[in-house]
Design goal:
globular, Protein ARV, transmembrane, single chain, mainly alpha, lipid metabolism
């Protein structure tokens, strides 16, 4: 019923092949991961992705303000700017998710009737944001094309989010992208708010 096939073919597949198919954003691989596996790392993955994003922003902030010796780890740990960037990244992520939920609830209220529907969609969206982990290699292997790489990572995460919404709620392609669009509008609204407050985002 969940995979929309008589049998989920990914049951017999190696986890590496399942991961490759998920990276390729195949809907059936997403269905297998969301419905036929017991993965409970969504919370930890979300925190780790937010840490990656906060680190990237903090590093860009450090580059623009001052040069600090990379070996001075104790001074790094005391940098409150990192925690501020983590808080801002968390608020942006939350506003993005709230924008998606509001849009889906407004357009198709029957899809999100129960608390379990909300929780399943939230888990799917958090798991599908795994592409943010690519921020770390993009920072480590810094080169002239880093801004382009970051843009590709953002697009990849949005495509993954779209597939997660499609698979979880069994929708066509249009509504998930509409929900993501409104999520981005709300997220950018939060960014504009922080910039008006005079915070570096």
């Amino acid at each position: 019923k969940s995979c929309q096939k008589p049998v989920d073919k990914y049951i017999e597949y190696d986890p590496v092949i399942i991961l490759i198919n998920a990276i390729l954003c195949k809907a059936q691989a997403y269905r297998h991961i969301l419905f036929n596996t017991k993965i409970n790392i969504h919370g930890k993955l979300c925190i780790f992705c937010l840490l990656c994003e906060a680190y990237l922003r903090w590093l860009q902030l450090q580059d623009s303000s001052q040069n600090i010796d990379p070996d001075d780890l104790i001074r790094y740990a005391k940098e409150w700017d990192f925690y501020r960037m983590f808080g801002i990244a968390s608020l942006e992520q939350t506003s993005f998710l709230v924008g998606i939920f509001i849009t889906l609830w407004w357009m198709r209220p029957e899809m999100l009737k129960t608390k379990s529907d909300f929780i399943l969609l939230l888990k799917a969206l958090l798991l599908s944001s795994y592409g943010k982990l690519l921020l770390i290699p993009a920072v480590i292997w810094e080169h002239d094309y880093t801004p382009l790489c970051l843009a590709f990572i953002k697009v990849f995460v949005l495509i993954s989010n779209s597939q997660a919404i499609r698979v979880t709620l069994n929708l066509n392609r249009t509504l998930p992208w509409l929900a993501i669009f409104f999520g981005l509008i709300l997220e950018n609204g939060v960014v504009c708010f922080f910039q008006k407050m005079g915070w570096d985002v």
